[in-house]
Design goal:
Blueprint: H1 19-27, H2 38-41, E1 46-51, E2 57-64, H3 67-86, E3 96-104, E4 112-118, E5 124-131, H4 134-146, E6 153-156, E7 159-163, E8 168-169, H5 170-176, H6 185-202, E9 212-218, E10 223-229, H7 253-262, H8 265-285, H9 287-299, H10 305-319, H11 330-346
Antiparallel strand pairs: 1-2, 2-3, 3-4, 4-5, 5-7, 6-7, 8-9, 9-10
Helix pairs in contact: 4-9, 6-7, 6-8, 8-11, 9-11
């Protein structure tokens, strides 16, 4: 695998959700009325830094709200969690309470992370309140349609409520787990190759190690590994093709090094083909929903004309396929990616 360093120099703007995309969200039951908004949570008066167990700054802040507003905010968050998890059935939250709200000042989305706890057994869960952004919504939908992973979120006007995706952060896994004696490093390297291929096909960008998690499943004789994206802010926005290949971020060097050490060129191609076959299965099973999303995305504003031109030129060169030069939108580029995958699998 090639090694380089990709830098995203500017913060991506929030792209408003178009009426056509909102219609799609209503059709697939992703748009619901929420009792609280992102704007409501932004009305904190002050905040203090959240430190980890080693007393280091996590880049999250814990906001403080006026006492008169706190009960209303907590009630709204519990209802939002019930809508996300159980179609609004409030019995789900009758024994739960909001333990903490954190606010992230780092990155594009500036999300709120909410910890909700069951007072009967202290079992807790997290969910996120974010600004509804076109890139993020397309990223979540493509993750749902084109991968075996399920994502759970709802949108209301300018607010998005998103389920927490559990796993070991990719940077933490690379730092602390790559030398684990019980882990088969070839399996880890294989998963990174497949993840790299998946991101390129779906044009999911900025998959640096802290933007994905490693999920580990014990099997009867070994451990299975799966990398999952947790940040969809850079869904088909940037023009540089390398933004959509995790192998080119310096934060992922440990995974690239692992692939170079444990895999051959032949096995890399084999694992890429496995990912193509998996994607083909998803396309066939979700073809109607994928077609509906395609029809919206082709006409939607998801990036600048300059970035679309840069990406289609870059991919035409990368794949040796002049058909990319005919694409006029990010939606058409992804459609061509998928068509090429289908064509290659059938060969």
């Amino acid at each position: 695998m090639d090694v380089a360093n990709v830098v995203i120099s500017r913060k991506k703007p929030i792209i408003p959700v178009s009426p056509e995309l909102r219609k799609y969200l209503r059709t697939y039951q992703r748009e619901k009325r929420l009792p609280i908004s992102y704007h409501d949570l932004m009305q904190f008066t002050e905040s203090f830094p959240v430190l980890d167990k080693f007393n280091k700054d996590t880049l999250w802040q814990s906001p403080l709200y006026p006492g008169i507003e706190l009960d209303r905010i907590h009630d709204g968050l519990k209802m939002a969690y019930a809508i996300l998890k159980a179609s609004g059935n409030l019995r789900l939250v009758e024994h739960k309470y909001i333990e903490r709200i954190d606010y992230c000042m780092f990155g594009n989305s500036n999300p709120f992370r909410v910890k909700i706890v069951n007072r009967l057994n202290d079992i807790y869960d997290y969910f996120y309140i974010k600004r509804a952004d076109t890139s993020r919504i397309y990223g979540l939908e493509l993750e749902e349609i084109l991968t075996p992973n399920q994502v759970n979120y709802v949108v209301d006007e300018e607010t998005l409520v998103e389920e927490h995706i559990a796993g070991i952060p990719g940077d933490v896994f690379a730092k602390n787990r790559l030398n684990h004696p019980d882990y088969n490093m070839t399996r880890v390297a294989k998963e990174f190759v497949k993840f790299n291929e998946r991101c390129l096909i779906t044009l999911l960008g900025d998959m640096r190690a802290y933007n994905f998690v490693m999920q580990i499943t014990p099997d009867f004789d070994d451990f299975q590994f799966r990398l999952r994206a947790i940040d969809f802010d850079q869904q088909f926005y940037e023009g540089n093709p390398k933004v959509y290949m995790p192998q080119f971020f310096k934060e992922n060097y440990a995974y690239v090094k692992l692939a170079m050490e444990f895999l051959t060129e032949k096995t890399v191609r084999q694992y890429q083909q496995e990912e193509h076959s998996s994607l083909l299965y998803q396309v066939r099973s979700e073809r109607h929903r994928l077609a509906a999303l395609r029809d919206v995305s082709i006409l939607d504003y998801t990036s600048t004309p300059e970035k679309v031109a840069e990406l289609k030129t870059g991919l035409a060169s990368h794949f040796g396929d002049a058909k990319y030069l005919q694409c006029r939108s990010m939606g058409q580029i992804i459609e061509l990616n998928i068509k090429n995958v289908i064509r290659n699998v059938k060969l």
